[in-house]
Amino acid sequence: MLRGFYTAASGMMSQQRRQDVLSNNMANALTPGYKADQTSMRAFPELLIERTDSKQLPVNHSVNIPNNKLIGSLNTGVYMQETIPDFGQGDLRETGMSTDLALRNGQMPDENGSLFYTVQNQDGGTSYTRNGNFTIDADGYLVTNSGHYVLDDNGNQIQVNHDQFNVTSNGDIQVDGATIPLGIVYHQNPTEDFTKGENDLYNIDGDGAEPVNARGIGGVTFEVRQGMLERSNVDTAQTMTDMMQTYRNFEANQQVLKAYDKSMDLAVNQIGRLR
To answer: Which part of the chain is the Flagellar hook protein FlgE/F/G-like D1 domain (predicted)?
Structure first.
């Protein structure tokens, strides 16, 4: 009986957390470069149920032989193990703003690989983003919409001073007679080595492999589109369907929990009552 309480409660908690992830995806459906999170559910370790029995042999001394039979396995609950970003390419939309840059994946040597802009985070280190909704700060530096400096190929801040610049398809910024290669890196498996931070930034997870300059990797092609932005890759119709399904699963576990609670009430307050 008590095991049923815990199983139903774990189901409710896991569905609530999944709903939070889906709601966050829906809230960022219009965020440029946003990558939808996917959830991974996992059952608690299974218990193997076995029936213990014995068989009596027809002999003079009544010898009993153990006769155990496996009934099957029983899961004791479920939990949301992790959230995994989907780094699939989003559609491009035109904005007409010279500071908006859309990064489009081309040929990749690994099917899980992806490309990112390099930016300077608050700690002075390097973070990565797909959001090309850039702007120019008061000092003339190219920054993200959250104020992080956009970096070039050598990890330096990019100063353009004005928005009258051109960006070639291979990511070179041409301004006032100078050419500044935009910092674009490639990572072969960001799903494993990246963690999602704030303001659409990704960071290396612990001992994860560092991304490398995309221009120095054979088999990697990309295209930078000026005056365009990459949309989020959130499928709003599928997300709404998943949210409804998650809500129904939560309700089902809730009804099971109520049934267990009613049965426990009868067992405690009526079956055991002395008359």
So the answer is: 112-175
Q: Are strands 166-167 and 172-175 parallel, antiparallel or unpaired?
A: antiparallel
Residue the block writes with tokens 């003079």: 60
Question: Looking at the predicted structure, is the pLDDT value of residue 61 above 80?
Answer: no
With a cut of 90, say whether residue 18 has pLDDT above it.
yes
In 3D space, the residue among 245, 264, 222, 253 whose CA is nearest the CA of residue 89 turns out to be 222
pLDDT digits (tens, 9 = 90+) for 134-156: 999 999 999 999 899 999 999 99
15 in Cβ contact with 78 (< 8 Å): no
Predicted confidence at residue 81, as pLDDT, reads: 80
Alpha helix stretches (DSSP H) within 110-197:
190-193
**% of the chain exceeding 90 in pLDDT:** 54
Say if pTM beats, i.e. exceeds, 0.85.
Answer: no
Residue 34 to residue 250: CA distance in whole angstroms: 27
How many angstroms separate the CA atoms of 238 and 246, rounded? 12
Residue 148, Cβ neighbours under 10 Å: how many?
18
Task: Report d(CA 88, CA 209) in Å as an integer.
Answer: 20
Amino acid present at 125:
G
Residue 156's alpha-carbon distances to 59, 126, 187, in angstroms, are 91, 10, 20
Answer whether 220's CB lies under 8 Å from 109's CB: yes
